[in-house]
Amino acid sequence: MSFSDFSKVETVKSLNEFLADKSYIDGTSATQADVTVYKAFQKTYPQFTRWLNHIASFTEEFEDLPAGKAPAASAAASSATDAADDDDLDLFGSDDDEVDEEAEKLKQKRLEEYAAKKAAKGPKPTAKSIVTLDVKPWDDETDLEEMLANVKKYETEGLTWGAHQWIPVGFGIKKLQINLVVEDSVSLEDLQAYIEEDEDHVQSTDIAAMQKL
Known about the structure:
Shape: elongated
Structural class: alpha+beta
Helix content: 40-55%
Distance between the termini: 51 Å
Strand order of the largest sheet: 2-3-1-4
Order of helices and strands: HHHHHEHEEHE
Radius of gyration: 30 Å
Keywords: Elongation factor, Protein biosynthesis
Number of helices: 7
Number of strands: 4
Protein name: Translation elongation factor 1 beta
Largest sheet: 4 strands, antiparallel
């Protein structure tokens, strides 16, 4: 069905079918056609539109929401859908820009309550990982203590250096293996690039292990 045929779409069910393989009413980006249809749907079903937009704001908390009367609610939703399918939805009727004021006030009230609830919970804990980093020297004559000191000169917010050890790799050469705790905002690539700039001591670096905390 092309946009020129869209005036034939009269019910919620047919609108749903029309959008089954589309993201927009016409073309591959949002246009005034989408605005017209959205406003028409909002005008015809203001309470349902308000509820749908409001519940969508809880998407990240779906799993944590308390139990409700799901069977009754599901039956009501099913009945409402069936009823909506039987109603005419005048998508190309009067373009009335006035929104139900009561519905809009209720929507704003719910959004404010949701924002206050999230603020009361406080910020989510910062995601962190513990990383084991291998730093390989050039040879057995490399000053390992100096190399270690240069590695730990790298400081940035969200990074904490931990314990280290020297691991034999053969021919008298020992590599540095050091642990660090980093927040997700810390770039390990930048860290490795900084360490590898110490060409007098460092041959290469490698992430030996990484685990979320």
